[in-house]
Design brief:
Structural class: alpha/beta
Number of helices: 16
Distance between the termini: 12 Å
CATH topology of the largest domain: TIM Barrel
Radius of gyration: 20 Å
CATH architecture of the largest domain: Alpha-Beta Barrel
CATH class of the largest domain: Alpha Beta
Helix content: 25-40%
Low-confidence stretches: 130-143
Mean pLDDT: 93
Largest sheet: 6 strands, mixed
Number of strands: 17
CATH superfamily of the largest domain: Metal-dependent hydrolases
Shape: globular
């Protein structure tokens, strides 16, 4: 297979139910030409390769809005129809990023580079307490974990990430109380505001890692664009929900990460033939574990917060926070965990169509990815064809029958 982008081959997917990223549409034919969607509806062009989608649903390629990844992760993600991964910390050379942008056998990538954190702050505790795998993941050896102490250092750090190709800026506010490392240092307000303001001056979004209500309040007060997790140390707080809504920030709840943090195993997902046929043993073993760092947490409380956010008009994006297959980060796997996240969003009270928007058009809109997340003429031909109807049964997203990335169908 030629893994580079792409030929002028024409393909027509016919007779499928089509969710275009926002709604189900009347048309049942999508024509792909080269890397792009050529037409939605209309006649099948002469000479096109025809794929009968009868009994199937066609949706845009999925976007995982919170990962930490590498080339293997991008490869696994695509097997599950995740055509774009939005990384929330990592280091990539310009050569690597160029290669990713030119290959269609792995998911596409956007990244902030490294995140803004104080000395000894999150996630440096993982690097000092874990295997070299995490160092490789977050830091791409050789590398010294870099931190900031002052507003001026935060400004320089943000500028350096942008100079290195950052697509947006990641900031950490994490005291460790909810993740098994209490007492971690956190940024002071002046340094936090300096980082946010510099990113905005440079026209970059800011996404802040938070797990507590206090950190969430600090982030929204600073004017951040997105919250990288759902706070889970408190029940829904109406005033905080209102603050988030008024700020215009989106949220990436990563319910699947909360679930494993609360001690819930995803062994049932690892045993699903639609999953175990696509993942290696090391990832299946990791998926079957749980972090169990906050066993007092309850998903029903997180669900209540999600419903309150949704009802307040806050944009919800689907993300998994998957990274490496090691015990300290168990319960997650590239690709599979985003499908799990969709189920949890529906369990929380979103409709299936709202959950699917959270993994397609909504992240595309919020991250300015104007060429994806929708099935419209001129968009990238990033597509997922599944048996059944995920608009009725969200679990059908895993019944994968075809994945296209930049117009090329992934070999099954």
């Amino acid at each position: 297979m030629n893994h580079n982008v792409t030929t002028d081959q024409t393909t027509a997917i016919t007779n499928a139910k089509i969710f275009d990223g926002e709604r189900v549409i009347d048309n049942q034919t999508v024509v792909i030409k080269g890397a792009l969607i050529h037409a939605v509806g209309g006649a099948v062009p002469a000479g096109a390769t025809v794929i009968d989608g009868r009994g199937k649903t066609l949706i845009p390629g999925l976007i995982d809005s919170h990962v930490h990844t590498d080339m293997d992760g991008l490869h696994d993600a695509l097997k599950f129809g995740i055509t774009t991964e939005l990384e929330m910390q990592g280091r990539w050379s310009s050569k690597q990023r160029k290669e990713i942008s030119e290959r269609n056998d792995i998911a596409d990538l956007r990244s902030p580079g490294m995140g803004v954190t104080p000395k000894g702050g999150h996630p440096s505790e993982y690097i000092s307490s874990s295997s070299s795998l995490l160092i490789r993941l977050f830091c791409r050896l050789p590398f010294v974990f870099r931190s900031v102490r002052t507003p001026d250092e935060a400004v320089k750090f943000v500028d350096d990430q942008i100079a290195g190709g950052a697509d947006y800026i990641k900031i950490f506010i994490e005291d460790g109380s909810c993740i098994g490392f209490p007492g971690l240092p956190v940024l002071d307000d002046k340094t936090l505001y300096a980082a946010v303001n510099e990113a905005h001056r440079r026209d970059k979004l800011t996404i802040v890692h938070v797990t507590t209500a206090e950190a969430t309040k600090r982030a929204t007060d600073a004017g951040v664009d997105g919250l990288g997790h759902l706070f889970f140390d408190r029940l829904p707080i109406p005033s905080l929900i209102s603050d988030i809504a008024l700020s215009g920030a989106f949220i990436i709840p990563t319910l699947v990460t909360l679930s494993t943090a609360f001690g819930n195993s995803a062994a049932w997902l690892a045993a699903d033939e639609r999953v175990c046929s696509r993942l290696s043993k090391k990832w299946l073993d990791s998926l079957s574990r749980s972090m169990n760092v906050y066993p007092q947490g309850k998903l029903k409380d997180a669900y209540a917060t999600i419903r309150a956010l949704r009802d307040s008009g806050v944009d919800i994006l689907a993300g998994s926070d998957v990274s490496e297959p090691i015990p300290i980060l168990g319960g997650l796997a590239h690709g599979a965990s985003l499908h799990h996240e969709l189920r949890l969003l529906v369990a929380a009270g979103l409709t299936p169509i709202e959950a699917l928007r959270a993994a397609t058009s909504t992240p595309a809109r919020r991250f300015g990815l104007t060429d994806r997340g929708r099935i419209v003429p001129g968009a990238l031909a990033d597509l997922l064809l599944v048996d059944g109807d995920p608009l009725t049964n969200i679990a059908d997203t895993l019944s994968i029958r075809g994945v296209w990335h930049r117009g090329e169908q992934l070999a099954s």
